[in-house]
Amino acid sequence: MKKYMQLFLNMGHYWKSVFSIAFGNAGAQLMIVISVPVLARLYSPADFGMFAVFGSLSTIIAVLATGRYEAAIPLPDDPGDSWRLYLISLILGIGSACFMGITIFGGLNSVLTMVLPDQTFTSITLFLPLGVMVLVGVNASEYWLNRNGDSRWIGASRFVAAVIMVGCQYLFAEGSNHASGLIIGFIAGNGACFFSHFIRGIRYRKAGKSSCQSLILMYRRFPQYLLLAQLLNSLSSHLPVLLLGSWFGTAVAGYYAMANRGLNVFDIFSTATGQVFYPMASRQCQETGECYETFSRTIKRLAHLSVLVFPLTFFLSPIAVELLLGADWNNTTPMIRVLIPLFWVRFIVSPITWVYYIRNRQELYLKRQVFLVIGIMLALFYGRVSAVPLESVLWLSLVTIGAYYFDFLACRKMSKAIS
Fold first, then answer.
1. 57 vs 363: CA distance, rounded Å
2. What is the DSSP letter of 418?
3. Would you say the C-alpha torsion 204, 206, 210, 213 has a positive or negative sign?
4. Are the beta carbons of 292 and 368 closer than 8 angstroms?
5. How many angstroms separate the CA atoms of 208 and 147, rounded?
6. d(C-alpha 137, C-alpha 140), whole Å
7. Could you report the per-residue pLDDT of 238-274, keeping only the tens digit for each?
């Protein structure tokens, strides 16, 4: 235990940045969790379901809108070129959102309501351009601020954004049309976050050496390969819920979704680690031609931390489910225990997968995603044949662990100096 404590007491700038973002994420998540009992009495389950649809659509469209050029912001040697990539991302994203708004008012809304006939969806689609706009702004701005080492601002603004979001959702509950109050809060919180990020980010702007056109061409591999990879990543995340619900019933899908929601708490820290690892490893590659030192340090410290967390979660999960969710959710416990090895490996490996982008090997990551989606579909189908839902989840976990093991081997190799 003393060894583990010493590792985290002797933190440098790298790990202080990680904890700054992680604490901001944790504070934001805590605010949302605390608000759920109150908001659940102000909005119906259908409202929350429609809000989830809105959030998913906004997130997917926001990824497509920028061509993923924001992911290239940490890469240029010249900070002025990074600033221009940031502006390119904002122009593409906001322009796409405006175009989407025009098409929605011009008739796309009618087409969408034919696909999703729920009448409440008509009003929700009108908010989509704003949802996309604020998400694009937040995502691109966080890449820019991380590029400049301003992680404390990111952590603090995420917490403030959560407070604004929850506050607006509470205020607009009275008299709101279906899920509109939840959506207005979402847009208000993320909009405030984007505005504060942009104002803060202006202080770091510098004149770039390269033109916007040359930067678009230089980093064209991001829209060429990363867009499809992100789509496949979305499929790998959502297919299990869709297929489990279709084959075994919505209750099984609910147990799986709740197990994922509980274990996703650990992603707060690993995601923050990845956000700090990316610009730092990128700079190390620019200066020395390799980033193995940062890679190795990140893997080792996350592994040490995970040894303290995940075994304890495995043994305490039945008590936690009974205490927090109630007896009706006891079937969630086996799902949690089957998924813990997957989340354990993901906690350690996912932050260092940014090496794919640092080494400009997006096509390799794309191939990995294709095989992962195929593997997940086969794993889930095996469970359907055996008529045992837990077997589907078990094979899903094993297939995904295999994908992360491939990530570890590939990124370790790429993090070393290229001969």
1. 25
2. P
3. positive
4. no
5. 15
6. 5
7. 677 667 766 776 567 667 766 777 787 787 778 778 8
